[in-house]
User: Fold this.
Amino acid sequence: LTRVDLNFDELRRLTKNDSIPKGGQLKAKVTAKGKVSQLSTLDVAVEDLDTTVYSSRVNGHVRFKDVDRPRFDIKLHGDRLAVSDILKQLPQGKEEPKPKKADEKPENPHGLPAETRKLIHKMTGTVDLHVDRVTYEKHTFDDVTALIKVASGDITFEKLQLTTYGGRVVGDGTTLDTDEEYLRSVLKLNAKNVDLGQVLDNNTSKKDAVDGRVDFTSNVTARGMNTDDVLNTLQGPVGIKSRQLTLNNANLLAGIAGPIAKVASMAGKLSGKAADPKAPTTFKDFDADLTFEGGKMVLTHPILVSSGFGNLSLDGYVRFDSRI
Assistant:
């Protein structure tokens, strides 16, 4: 049994190793078994872990066996966890990293780097997580509870609950298959009161496109990690409900209202917002069941929209071409 109390800044100074993270610290009780000459026999238990590293602060315990084919049991709780900063530290290959050019594309824009995929495929373990705030790239998740199983390249969220974009999201059963070049996802989500406008602002090129909060459910599959990949490979059902949902600068009825306004006796009434292609379209008591297939979003039953005509029924589909 060894008690560890490390100040990373002091360790950087003593070892002259700049790869050690700045401002980090680690306190723990460590028990290690196995032969140094046989890393497959390694068995490490870290108890009473308290660490601040890579913009993250967590405590808990970690059990780790076999460097060649890692097995682990991790239970963590804490204030914050910065996932992107941690992922940057995973092995990216044996060669020394080369300086990147300004216009250089990532090794694999559709999934994880090859070396990372190989490492995850060898792993088997469980992560039990309770964190006040988790960040990943530009996304923020609060009050996060997760039970994650890792085996043969599959990452399964047996339990996933969090708050994001002002709403509560449950994703029990969501899985990620990291083995292939194109990351494969199965998204099983049940969300309440999520700000859809913020979601689209943060994840697409369309800004201020939508106003409104939604409840939604999904059981869809997708491949890839960038927006184009995901939109073009989405498959499965989605349900969306909202008391009021507004599409800004997108009058879905302008194509109908414009011609009618020119000939109808009520042209004066319709020549305003009803015929303006940039006027908003507002859905009240919005309730839509959708199916994603073949790069398009198909309505499985008509929905109602309020307009200059009153309440109208809409049916059909929306096709994706890199944009919504």
